[in-house]
C-alpha cells in the first residue's frame, strides 16, 4: 500500500479534474441568470429547480429526446449487423483482394469526417431527406471502425469451428449467424455502447442536415439555445444534464463490458 499511494493520489487528482466541469455544470444549472454571469463566479447554487422545467418550454425537448432515441437505436442496430457481416467476411472468408480492400477500409479512419459533410448533404438533398430522421440515420449505419473492431474478435476464434460447421452442411451465412456471432458478444457489446455514445452526442451532422426543431436531436436542439448576443446558461446547462443522464447511466452499468471488449481487440492482429 505504501508503494502505491503516489499512484492513488495522482489518480484521485486526475478524477477530480475530470469531474470539475460536471460539478460546475450542475451548479450553474441551479442558478439564476444573473448569478451565472457574475464575476468572480458564484460557487453556491441558488437552487432554482425551475430551470429544468424551463428547458422543455424553450425547446421541444421531449420530441428531440424521442428523435435521439430513434436515431441512436437505428444506428446502433445497423452498426452491429452490417459491421459484423463485413468483419466476418474479412476475417473468415477467402476472396481475391481481401487484404487490399481491408486496407482501404482502414484508410477511411484517417480521413476527417468533416470532409464528408458536403457530399453527404448533397446526397440527402437529392433524396429529399433534408429535415428528416432518415438523413440522420443513413450515414451512420456502417463504419470502418466497427468493422475493424469486430474483425479482431473473429480472428481470435479457431478455424476448426468453421471447418466443423461446413462438414455439417452449413453455408457461410449460417456459420456467421449460428456459430460465430454468439462467440463475439463482448465485441458486439463494446461496439454497441460506442455507437450509442457517438450517436447520442453527435452534433455537427444533425446541425447541418436538419433545421426544423421538431426533427433535431438533443445535441442540436441544445446548441440552438445559444443566442447571438446572450445565452441563458442555467437553462442550457440544465438541458445538457437532462441529455447526458441516459448515456452516463448506461456507461456506469456497462463500463466493464466496454473496457473488456476494447482491450480484447488487441490480442490478435
UniProtKB/TrEMBL annotation:
GO terms for cellular component: plasma membrane. It holds the Pfam family BPD_transp_1. Keywords: Cell membrane, Membrane, Sugar transport, Transmembrane, Transmembrane helix, Transport. Gene3D superfamilies: MetI-like. It is a multi-pass membrane protein. Its main location: membrane. It comes from Nonomuraea endophytica. GO terms for biological process: transmembrane transport. The chain crosses the membrane at residues 7-27, 65-88, 100-121, 133-154, 175-200, 233-253. It is found in: Cell membrane. The keyword Transmembrane helix applies. Residues 65-254 form the ABC transmembrane type-1 domain. This is Multiple sugar transport system permease protein. SUPFAM superfamilies: MetI-like. It comes from the Bacteria. Belongs to the binding-protein-dependent transport system permease family. The keyword Plastid does not apply.
Amino acid at each position: 500500500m505504501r508503494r502505491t499511494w503516489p499512484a492513488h493520489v495522482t489518480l484521485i487528482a486526475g478524477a477530480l479534474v475530470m469531474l470539475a466541469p460536471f460539478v460546475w455544470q450542475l451548479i450553474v444549472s441551479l442558478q439564476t441568470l444573473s448569478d451565472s454571469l457574475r464575476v468572480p463566479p458564484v460557487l453556491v447554487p441558488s437552487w432554482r429547480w425551475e430551470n429544468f422545467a424551463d428547458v422543455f418550454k424553450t425547446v421541444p425537448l421531449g420530441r428531440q429526446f424521442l428523435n435521439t432515441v430513434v436515431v441512436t437505436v437505428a444506428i446502433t442496430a445497423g452498426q452491429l449487423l452490417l459491421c459484423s457481416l463485413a468483419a466476418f467476411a474479412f476475417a473468415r472468408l477467402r476472396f481475391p483482394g481481401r487484404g487490399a480492400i481491408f486496407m482501404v477500409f482502414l484508410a477511411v479512419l484517417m480521413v476527417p469526417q468533416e470532409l464528408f459533410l458536403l457530399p453527404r448533404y448533397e446526397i440527402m438533398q437529392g433524396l429529399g431527406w433534408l429535415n428528416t430522421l432518415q438523413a440522420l440515420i443513413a450515414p451512420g449505419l456502417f463504419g470502418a471502425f466497427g468493422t475493424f473492431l469486430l474483425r479482431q474478435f473473429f480472428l481470435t476464434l479457431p478455424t476448426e469451428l468453421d471447418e466443423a460447421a461446413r462438414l455439417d452442411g452449413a453455408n457461410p451465412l449460417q456459420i456467421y449467424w449460428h456459430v460465430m456471432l454468439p462467440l463475439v458478444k463482448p465485441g458486439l457489446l463494446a461496439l454497441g455502447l460506442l455507437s450509442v455514445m457517438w450517436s447520442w452526442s453527435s452534433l455537427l451532422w444533425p446541425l447541418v442536415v436538419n433545421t426544423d426543431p421538431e426533427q433535431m436531436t438533443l445535441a442540436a436542439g441544445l446548441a440552438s439555445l445559444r443566442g447571438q448576443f446572450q445565452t441563458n446558461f442555467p437553462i442550457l446547462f440544465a438541458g445538457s444534464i437532462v441529455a447526458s443522464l441516459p448515456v452516463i447511466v448506461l456507461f456506469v452499468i456497462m463500463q466493464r463490458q466496454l473496457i473488456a471488449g476494447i482491450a480484447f481487440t488487441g490480442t490478435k492482429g
